[in-house]
Amino acid sequence: MESVPNAGYHIPVLLNEVLEALAIKEDGIYVDCTFGGGGHSSHILKALGPKGRLLVFDQDADAARNVPEDARVTFVPHNFRHLKRFLQLHGVPQVDGILADLGVSSHQFDEGSRGFSTRFEGALDMRMDQRSGKTAADVLQTYSESALHKLLEQYGEVTNARTLARTIVEVRKTVKFDTTLAFRNAVSSVVKGNPNKYFAQVFQALRIEVNDELGALKELLEQVPAVLKDGGRAAIITFHSLEDRLVKVFFRNGTFEAEEDHPFESRVRKSPLKLVNKKPIEAGQEELKRNPRSRSAKLRVAEKI
Ligand SMILES: C[S@@+](CC[C@H](N)C(=O)[O-])C[C@H]1O[C@@H](n2cnc3c(N)ncnc32)[C@H](O)[C@@H]1O
């Protein structure tokens, strides 16, 4: 395996596939929207010459510690949904490549106090950006039963989402879900199947909601055509079927609007992007053995035309 700095923080998935997909130009300008431990970024930097440039985003303050001292790197400690705005701020109207490796890092999971993991006792927080926004506890305490039902079903594929939503609304009248353990204990009577697997799905649903992960991805995708130079490439790694569908639809059509919204335009409207691979790229046997997290990773690549 290639060497990766900060491997204890996070092991990058589909590393070689990403590097190949981006087809890095020595003097190019690239954006890593999800810097994390900088695993992908460190290899992009190796492929860049002295005139190349890499802008890296991460909304989690912990990621800042991994940013290398390298004049070619600019760290943007913000949500990638503001991609275009921050690129303009740094004098970069367009780039040669965009990478996003979605979701949370192993570091975020392993930091019990952040509340992402079912394995540890911690505050029910789950915000990647701790400067603002609602926590997982806020979602559980304030959302309506139908909103909880919907998010548990759609984001977590929780089998008994309706029952769990009803239980949460009932139990919260007397119990405060301050910590991961308090929440697990309070709803333990409705757990179906293996509790660890069950809560992993519930926690995933809460995390996606807390961080508005699908909303941020949509906003990012909508900026891709304007931000990429002609011939530039976007590579996006997803870990959830809803995310993958957004990427697939946008990379194919260059829009989220259905054709029926514009029946007379649809024939002449041409996508500004073309898919580089018809099928998503997935981890090979060797990576699957080495890094179980790669199991659900799907990489899609598009080129600006
Ligand atoms: C899967 S990790 C990326 C790991 C990285 N590729 C590496 O090799 O170390 C995802 C990272 O992206 C950040 N992130 C997720 N969604 C984000 C968003 N909307 N805006 C900015 N950062 C985001 C997370 O905080 C996390 O550090």
UniProtKB/TrEMBL annotation:
Positions bound to S-adenosyl-L-methionine: 38-40, 58, 80, 101, 108
Annotated EC: 2.1.1.199
MF-aspect GO terms: rRNA (cytosine-N4-)-methyltransferase activity
Catalytic activity: cytidine(1402) in 16S rRNA + S-adenosyl-L-methionine = N(4)-methylcytidine(1402) in 16S rRNA + S-adenosyl-L-homocysteine + H(+)
Keyword S-adenosyl-L-methionine: yes
Entry keyword S-adenosyl-L-methionine: yes
Transmembrane segments: none
Top EC class, one word: transferase
Region (Disordered): 282-305
UniProt-annotated location(s): Cytoplasm
Pfam family, one: Methyltransf_5
A GO CC term assigned to this protein in UniProt: cytoplasm
GO biological process, one term: rRNA base methylation
InterPro entries: RsmH, SAM-dep_MeTrfase_MraW_recog, SAM-dependent_MTases_sf
Keywords: Cytoplasm, Methyltransferase, rRNA processing, S-adenosyl-L-methionine, Transferase
Domain of life: Bacteria
SUPFAM superfamilies: Putative methyltransferase TM0872, insert domain, S-adenosyl-L-methionine-dependent methyltransferases
Role played: Specifically methylates the N4 position of cytidine in position 1402 (C1402) of 16S rRNA.
Similarity comment: family membership: Belongs to the methyltransferase superfamily. RsmH family.
HAMAP family per record: 16SrRNA_methyltr_H
UniProt-recorded name of the protein: Ribosomal RNA small subunit methyltransferase H
Record lineage: Bacteria, Pseudomonadati, Bacteroidota, Chitinophagia, Chitinophagales
Name of the encoding gene: rsmH
